[in-house]
Amino acid sequence: MRLRKRTRRKIQHLPMIAISLITLAIIKIISHDIQIALRMFTRPSLVQTKPDTFLKDTNVAPNYGENFDAPYEYVLQHSPVYSKHIGARSSDISHEQGNAKIIQAEIALKPDFGNHRFYEDAVFTVANTMRFKDVVFFVRTLQKSGFEGDIVLSVNLDKPTNVTDFEENLDRQNLEKFLKSNAENGGNVVVYNGVIRSDETDETFSHQMNVTKDYAYLRGLYKVRNGNAVFEDERIPRSIGVARFELFWVWSQQYSPESRILLVDGHDTFFQKAGEDGIGSRHSCTHANTTKSYQLHIYEENNKGMKHRLNKIQNKTMLLFAYKNRAVMGFVYNENVLTPASTHGHQRAVDAYLRAMVKHFDITQCAYYRCEWAFHNYLFYTGALWSTPGIDEIIPHMQGTGAVNSVRLDVPLNESKIYDPRHHIVFNRPMGDGFHPSWAVHQYQEDIELAAYIEGQKDDMLKDLDYSKVPILKPAPVFDRKYKDCVIAIKPTHGAHRHAQDAIFSMIKAKDFDKVAWFIVSARKVGFEGDIVLHTPKLELVSKRISDFLKDQSKYNNVVIYEDCIRSNESKWILHHAYAEIGSEKIVNDRRPPRAKAVVSIDLFKIWIEQYDESSLIMVLDGEHAYFQSNPFDMKVCLAFELYTQTLVYREVNMETLAERDENMYAAFQTIFSAKDLEYFQDTEIITPHALFGHAKIMRMLLIGMANSFDKHLCYSYGCDFAVLNDLILNHRMTAVEASIMYKVIRRKARKGIISPIKDKHEFDRNTLKIKDGDKGKASPVILNYKNAIDPHHTEFFAKRLEELLQKSEAKNV
């Protein structure tokens, strides 16, 4: 009886739980965070039984958790070479098992121009039916949006038999010239010509053909493994929309699992600058910062007026034709249409998705125009994709959110809030933080005004087209202009850098044991396992306790020590014996004038950062005034190269009040900033160079930019590090960063970031003995000037706590 009562009680709570969830979703929607609400209630769930109810015994039930075969397996199994061994020479046979010859397949297809870069991101599109100026506009806007990955295209450069039009032939020749110029000499375009062929004429598919009626096959995709024999396409002729997914799969095999790949319909798509994040950057996810979840992003069709529901446009999505059972429509009844025209994600997830799409063509043999829509929607709504190995997370996007904005039903755009007709910018829908420009704009041709503007832009772009210039792939900034003829000669005196690790950089005086110990041991206590790189005076000149401690930490805890590399030169400082001439290895003296120690430290940090992978997270910190409450390196940033900066703690310290507080530093700001800028930024809080955090790639650019700015303005005195940093960030002078979606700069106010400078005792929580973030109410990961927050009666606690940590550290070392 008790068991029954408990069961009934649980059932009684279910309506309340359901009402609470619905209420939460409504609140989310009201607060503009529609995307979160969508993801909470978008079907299917990871554990799903409804498809089985609808599709049981119908021969269309999905196979959950299926690891779909590589697409060449179907070709291999249906090939006469496989079934009869006809035409297979001994060199074409991969291996033998007993007396039976076993033939295997592999990818044979290679690009006509350009090369895939394994560790880059990529955008895939089929441009066979696009005009010359359409291809140019697609490529150029994508490049100018800040995308630095590969642009992979299928095109037609062959002369069709019946085309004699002079302009048509000229466009084809110019297209080849344009693609070659963007594929060679460091370009980022990869071109495949003649792969998609007309089944009727055997010519390359081109824009003279009808995509709704003409059928295609794919040529030269696969060959016998370790042999030369190329397989014919054994699949039935199909629409180009269906065929492209197999070609996309072949391309996807050229990239790393963490590469971001966008599959997009390029016909009516262009790209804008300053899109929110694009599809992210693979490079921020190498080594220590590997992605935790391989994601697939899919998009809804524009559903304005509830017009794009699967039950209302059954013929267009071909679901009934493909799966031949109304049970499918019974399950997806009234669901929003998902478009296969724009899908992106990590390569590992995209690979699994493409395998599934090709497999469902093989299962259904649905070859007609728009059959790919049936596969795409079926795989999602039945839950088959959710359980496919390789896909950890599927993120469905409402129309107008995410990387791709399909604007079709929002026309006319000039009557919509998502369009700025004056500057011709299309925005994503506001998601709680205002409007942001869309990265990719799809279906723009549906809007008369925008389409006319874009056509004009295309014509202007062709007029200014210079085949000798590729506006992409800016070279990395020169490491140090003063030492172009030199190599780095300086080496650590204790410890060694680990290239694939994260790192903390700090200058320490090594006079106060407690400060040094708190810094290092607290970092290790919270779980930081990367390198701690220090510049110190000669250890023989510091106390034995500090010297022994640092040497032990170097030996056991990956502390890297550089002794006495920054030396006094009268009242200023120089970098000692850091470089040597190439070839002779002769040591070169510092080529910059004596300068403030903080300015010299930027040159040293610039040398250290060369020892780390571009995806490593680097923290530049005033170590002797810092301790760790949690591990900021656990954030595993994996979307873009990010740089976090912090303002000084005193709210009243800004450009206007700096002159009164610190006239020497203000003199440095006057050297770097114009009078107009000082007035413009008079209320702006000052960013500190003693609390920087971010990926090594963007941190390297910052440090190089600071060094170059010191030289440009001849600013080497006290305060120049502050002035130059603020100029670079506030005036957006890191041009490579500003132009690319691969980078993101975040400016945090004091007590609202990863590193929190503090100023007084009131910020210290006496109950938890931690300092909390002023924004989130959580303990700040790293505290600067922590002694400002310690009441005298807490000093004893900290001393005791330090002693405990040191004892644990010493025990671990032993």
TrEMBL record:
It comes from the Eukaryota. This is Uncharacterized protein. It comes from Chaetoceros tenuissimus.
